[in-house]
Design goal:
It is built from 14 helices and ten strands. It has a domain of 233 residues: Replication Fork Single-Stranded DNA Binding Protein. The chain starts with 5 loop residues before the first helix and ends with a helix. The longest helix has 15 residues. It is an alpha+beta fold. Helix 1 packs across helix 6. The strands form three sheets. Strands 1, 4, 7, 8, 9 and 10 form a six-stranded antiparallel sheet that branches. It has a two-stranded antiparallel ribbon with strand order 2-3.
Length: 358
């Protein structure tokens, strides 16, 4: 690592983490390079966070300066693959087609569930270079990439790193424990408890090291902001456009049904209308586009085509047999609104259930 002012840089990056109040990821990383991702399983863990030199895609640190964590905000649960993509607006202050469409839908009075789905993550993804000491095999792998929610890791590390200073003490005292310092840093011990949305990281503590991070290791770290996929506005818009085809088959069936209905006689149509009214009783809908609106949809911004019903949780649970593992959480309803959503094993099913209400 060529930057000789790493202590000053690490101090600055730690302070920026301290001031942040909010905080497999398909689409988060580039797919044209091999990246050794460390999977944090349930149990005890011991690791070192290794600093690296920032590249041109880091939203918080200038290129060429030393840092230890990359943090980006994401959209997830929408798009062609219902995966994850960086939010250009929240991360880089650029135009973001998903955020633009969310604001449009808010102005038009769209429901809370749709707005939540399109809102970027409250907490950023925190990405680290790590050396893991859980097993001999982990150690032999060398530097790996670890990403998790800022809520589960970085926020806790920053609180641990704060050095209490009494009034009247010297102002030149280090305000933070520089745990990522290659020479005088600290190892991190913590425990993962539970699975899916019940996952928690607990028992974080710093462990004193009797060794320094070698130059060989420092040369093998990854420039994390070079690993992530930063889409252009058009690429993100194209990915997001897939959300309109989530219920494409249902929409086509509905359109075909409407065509058939127009050819029915007055006597044949009226019973169907009555049955339709009865089937809708007791439910609150956000209506789909009308037929006239659908004809103009090519000239309109991207628009979600969904129905949101008051009793959606009951219907989703019946269809999938799954329930939210978080106490008082609602499967298919509270998607990406709980801290545990970041590591939930049934997250994709929950997203699909939210998106595919019939």
């Amino acid at each position: 690592m060529s930057n000789v002012n790493y202590k000053e840089d690490l101090r600055g990056r730690t302070e920026r983490s301290a001031h942040r109040i909010e905080g497999d990821s398909s689409g988060l990383f580039r797919d044209d390079i091999a990246i050794p991702i460390w999977r944090c399983i349930e149990g005890e863990h011991l690791l070192d966070i290794i600093p690296y030199t920032a590249g041109s895609n880091d939203p918080d640190v200038k290129k060429g300066r030393t840092t230890y964590v990359l943090e980006v905000f994401v959209h997830q649960g929408v798009g062609i693959d219902e995966g994850m993509r960086i939010c250009l607006s929240r991360t880089y202050g650029m135009k973001c087609p998903i955020c633009e469409d969310r604001k449009r839908l808010q102005r038009e009075g769209a429901g809370d569930e749709i707005i939540k789905l399109l809102t970027p993550s409250r907490y950023p993804r925190s990405i680290y270079n790590v050396l893991v000491y859980d097993t001999r095999k982990d150690e032999e792998k060398g530097v790996q990439v670890f990403h998790t929610s800022n809520y589960l890791m970085e926020q806790i590390l920053i609180e641990l790193a704060r050095v209490p200073v009494r009034a009247g003490k010297r102002e030149d005292l280090e305000p933070f424990i520089l745990f990522a310092d290659p020479k005088n840093g600290m190892s991190i011990q913590f425990k993962r408890q539970g699975e899916a949305q019940n996952t928690r990281f607990v028992g974080h503590k710093f462990v004193k090291r009797d060794y320094e991070i070698s130059e060989e290791i420092l040369r093998s770290v990854y420039c994390l902001d070079d690993l992530i996929f930063v889409p252009t506005y058009d690429e993100l818009k194209e990915w997001y456009a897939g959300v309109e085809s989530i219920n494409q088959e249902q929409e086509e069936e509905k359109s075909e049904h409407s065509i058939r209905r127009r050819h029915l006689s007055e006597d044949e149509t009226e019973p169907n209308k009555k049955q339709e009214r009865e089937s809708r009783s007791g439910r609150n809908y956000l209506e789909d586009e009308t037929e006239s609106e659908a004809e103009e949809s090519d000239q309109k911004p991207l628009k979600l085509k969904r129905k949101v019903m008051v009793d959606e949780e009951e219907m989703k649970s019946k269809k999938t047999g799954l329930v939210c593992p978080v106490k008082n959480g609602k499967f298919g309803v509270d998607t990406d609104t709980l801290p545990e959503c970041d590591s939930c094993r049934i997250w994709k099913e929950c997203v699909k259930a939210q998106n595919n209400i019939e």
